[in-house]
């Protein structure tokens, strides 16, 4: 069972992963189906190097796993519940005002 402090850390880690649009796109793509990096890079229109960096971040956050398939590696969500969480977040987005900003300490919008 997670303590409140560890629950907060896990939520913050999930938030950091979602803070980057490319990582969001990767998670949404993997929500649809597991994929090989070359296919992901092509479908997202980004370089394999850039994708690799983002996949490493998502692995470090515990959100995706690399599954060896022969000589290739396939990526998938670490847990099917993450797909459900992403669905819930996508549904909740409509409740957030599109013109709202979230100022950070430097006075810039963080959202």
UniProtKB/TrEMBL annotation:
Keywords: Cadmium, DNA-binding, Metal-binding, Transcription, Transcription regulation. This is HTH-type transcriptional regulator CmtR. Pfam families: HTH_5. GO terms for biological process: response to cadmium ion; response to lead ion. Homodimer. One of its GO terms (molecular function) is cadmium ion sensor activity. The keyword Transcription regulation applies. It comes from the Bacteria. InterPro entries: ArsR-like_HTH (IPR011991), HTH_ArsR_DNA-bd_dom (IPR001845), HTH_Metal-responsive_Reg (IPR052543), WH-like_DNA-bd_sf (IPR036388), WH_DNA-bd_sf (IPR036390). The keyword Nuclease does not apply. Residues 4-100 form the HTH arsR-type domain. Metal-responsive transcriptional repressor for the cmt operon. Binding of cadmium or lead causes the repressor to dissociate from the DNA.
């Amino acid at each position: 069972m997670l303590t409140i402090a560890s629950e907060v850390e896990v939520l913050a880690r999930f938030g950091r992963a979602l803070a980057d649009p490319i990582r969001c796109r990767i998670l949404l793509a993997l929500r649809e189906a597991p994929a090989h990096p070359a296919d992901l890079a092509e479908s997202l229109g980004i370089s394999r190097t850039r994708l690799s960096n983002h996949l490493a971040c998502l692995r470090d956050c515990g959100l995706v796993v690399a599954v060896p398939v022969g000589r290739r590696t396939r990526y998938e969500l670490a847990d099917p519940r993450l797909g459900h969480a992403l669905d819930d977040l996508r549904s909740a987005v409509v409740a957030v005002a599109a013109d709202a900003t979230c100022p950070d300490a430097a006075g810039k919008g963080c959202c």
